[in-house]
Design goal:
Number of strands: 3
Radius of gyration: 21 Å
Structural class: alpha+beta
Strand order of the largest sheet: 1-2-3
Number of helices: 3
Largest sheet: 3 strands, mixed
Length: about 110
Amino acid sequence: MGAFLAAVLLAGCNSEDARHLSQDTRQLAQHAGESLGNAGLAGKVNTVLSLRKGVDMSGLHVEAKDGAVTLSGHVRDAAERQRVVETVNGIRGVERVVADDLRIAGANAK
C-alpha cells in the first residue's frame, strides 16, 4: 500500500519533489522502526517485571529509548528497588538502566 501511494504521489511530482518525498518516507520508516523497537523493549521489561516475584508493578513506570530503560514511580522498600534494577539489567536488549526517579514509597530517599 505504501509503495503504491508513493508511486502515485511521485507521478505528479518533479524530480526535486520526488527526492524530498523519498527522503521523508525513509525518515518516517526509520522513526517508526525505532518507536516499535522502543515500545517492544518497554513491553518486554514490563512483562518480565510483572512475572518477577517480589515486584509490585502498580507503582512502576517503564520507558525505553535506544536500549536505555528509565524506571520511575514507587517501590515498597530498598530491597524491591534493587530487585527491580537488577532484573531489568538482566534483560536482553537493555543496555543501560536509569532509576533516578524510582523512589521508595513513604521515604524521602531514592
